[in-house]
Design a protein that fits this description.
By secondary structure, this protein is an all-alpha fold. The chain has one domain. It has four helices and no strands. The longest helix has 15 residues, at 77-91.
Length: 98
């Protein structure tokens, strides 16, 4: 695969977001904005609350980066949700519904 180029802004049209190489796309977008994921006390607290509720949610690096991009208001909630969905589908080898 050649150099992936993510745009400085994401398309508003959700269907224009990638369904393949999502991790690389998100990473390049974050790099273009000088964004990295870093843990905070809120992350520790939210994970503790999630465990106390009986849930076991563990985000991977791409998912954590998407949350960070949303917190920084570089992507919308809808863009984050679509990219998260596309990323999870790609990881599980599930094709999107046409």
């Amino acid at each position: 695969m050649g150099q992936l180029r993510a745009p400085k802004t994401l398309p508003a049209e959700l269907d224009a977001l990638p369904v393949e190489h999502v991790s690389e796309y998100v990473l390049e977008f974050a790099r273009a904005h000088h964004i990295e994921f870093s843990r905070s006390g809120v992350d520790d607290w939210s994970e503790a609350v999630t465990r106390a509720a009986g849930d076991d949610v563990a985000l991977d690096a791409t998912e954590k980066l998407l949350v960070t991009l949303k917190k920084q208001q570089l992507i919308s909630g809808r863009q984050m949700a679509r990219l998260m969905t596309n990323h999870m589908r790609e990881r599980k080898h599930v094709r999107p519904v046409q």
